[in-house]
Amino acid sequence: MKTVAIAGTFDSKSVEFAYLQELIQSLGLQTFMIHTGVFEPKLAADVSNEDIAKAVGANIKEIAARKDRALATDVLSRGLEKLLPRLYAAGKFDGILSCGGSGGTALVTPGMRALPVGVPKVMVSTVAAGDVSVYVGTSDIFMYPSIVDVAGLNSISTKIFTNAALAIAGMVKFEVDKVLEKKPLIAASMFGVTTPCVDQAREYLEQRGYEVLIFHATGTGGKAMEGLIKDGYIAGVFDITTTEWADELMGGNMAAGETRLDAAALNRIPQVVSVGALDMVNFGPVATVPAKYKGRNFYQHNPTVTLMRTTVDENRQLGLMIAEKLNQCQAKAALLLPLKGVSMIDAPGQPFYGPEEAAALFAALKENITNPLVEIIEVDANINDPVFSTAAAQKLVELLSEKNI
InterPro entries attached here (predicted)? Predict the structure, then answer.
């Protein structure tokens, strides 16, 4: 019989969690109860708060005596992050459900994020209708708005809890172990303005027995890709669209953090890298663009996305940053440079066409990449031309073949 873990503060919200437990069991599933509160639970638990605290070398009684909510949340959150993957690996549960306010959400979601992608995770939360990136990260947590506070049972909360229970039950009961034939996974980065390149390469790679996972280079996408590479899911990387570095440098909306381009380099994963969409920085509506950029070359992608053309100096800086990342490579890699444009709108007659900017970018890369494992290949084409995408895909297949010899 499948089992749903229910994690939460059984000291302060025992009524709500007892209701969820009864619901889950009525659906023909077992429950595995995890108490994340500081004080004694009012509901029987399979995993105690003492167990959670011990996972990070702490004593729950000492923590309770200090009456420091921030400390308690931090310790229990870190403990659950350590403990949940172990419990899942031991077969204790098949999916996990929780509910809470901002504190309860911050306490449980780090543990949910530590579980493998694909494990059902449902968080009913008072903060689920806002920016949930701090809670979800690059995981597949299903955040469900609680509408009313998680404080007792009423006509609204019981309906929400029921729907959440039905959702996790459906995920667990109807899980399909195998959908597609297992193939080596390729991670590819893509943006709207590099879509033709990645689509053409995907077709080429799939014809040669690879499965291609495409990540939208929106910050979250880059982080998710780096995480899966680091966790060992990925056989090869087709990192054509490194635009997130432009947002990182200029304060755009789609930065992926300073570890972007680290995972493949440091984990000896074959990779082909390019400079896709480094001609642009992403902002929201025009009114949200920082005042310091007034007078720059802008392109309205849609009402909510404003693109700003990168300058010669910014491209030089981007070249230095990416060269630094590629100099970390511990296995063979290739950097392909499209000499006729780095995006769909960096082409003759298009709004971001910039030969001088591209020249500065390419020069900085060629002058500063000193790692002999990184091959620099210039292609006399736009990044979206078939000759470029084919050359890049062929190179990745070559690197993968060399690794498997």
Answer: Tobamovirus_resist_UPF0261, UPF0261, UPF0261_C, UPF0261_N
